[in-house]
């Protein structure tokens, strides 16, 4: 499956008039589409991706510590999307999380992450080296 399909689905859900369940689902799918695009990019660099709940933070940290501006911005936006996804999926008392504007913003943000990751492909060696240096620093602590 192509992770972009999640973002396409999120766009359809966000554009619907079906209410909170669709809008919350749009935010969730937008996040997972962007997350898998970023994760897949790291995988193509040869980065070992953990199969744990910490994978979400791991992907953000790798991008953020890559010494590449596009990757760092993608990490920041991915963090914002992750927080929005948690609100949409778990905080039903947060009525704003179930609104169309939040869903639409989530889709736009996921598309921006996708664009930034595409820009990263041009600098994949620099990014790979930046992540390797970050991982070396972690292992020396």
Q: Which structural class fits the helix and strand makeup?
A: mainly alpha
**Count of β-strands:** 0
Overall 3D form: elongated
- Second CATH tier, the architecture: Up-down Bundle
Summary tags:
75% helix; 141 residues; 0% strand; 6 helices; elongated; Four Helix Bundle (Hemerythrin (Met), subunit A)
Describe this structure in words.
The protein is mainly α. The protein is built from six helices and no strands. The longest helix is centred in the first third of the chain and has 25 residues, at 20-44. The protein has a single domain, classed as Four Helix Bundle (Hemerythrin (Met), subunit A) (Up-down Bundle). The protein is 75% helix and 0% strand.
What's the layout of helices and strands?
Elements: H1 4-15, H2 20-44, H3 55-64, H4 69-90, H5 100-120, H6 124-139
Helix pairs in contact: 1-2, 1-5, 2-3, 2-4, 2-5, 3-4, 4-5
Briefly summarize what is shown.
This protein has 141 residues and is an all-alpha fold.
């Amino acid at each position: 499956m192509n992770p972009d399909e999640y973002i396409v689905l999120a766009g359809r859900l966000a554009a619907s008039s079906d209410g909170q369940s669709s809008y919350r689902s749009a935010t969730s799918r937008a996040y997972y589409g962007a997350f898998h695009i970023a994760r897949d990019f790291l995988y193509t660099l040869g980065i070992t991706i953990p199969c744990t709940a910490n994978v979400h933070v791991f992907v953000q940290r790798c991008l953020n510590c890559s010494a590449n501006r596009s990757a760092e911005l993608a990490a920041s936006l991915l963090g914002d999307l992750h927080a929005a996804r948690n609100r949409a999926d778990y905080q039903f008392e947060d009525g704003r999380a179930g609104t169309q504007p939040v869903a639409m913003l989530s889709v736009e943000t996921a598309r921006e992450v996708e664009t930034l990751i595409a820009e990263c492909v041009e600098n994949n060696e620099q990014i790979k080296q930046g992540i390797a240096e970050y991982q070396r620093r972690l292992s020396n602590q």
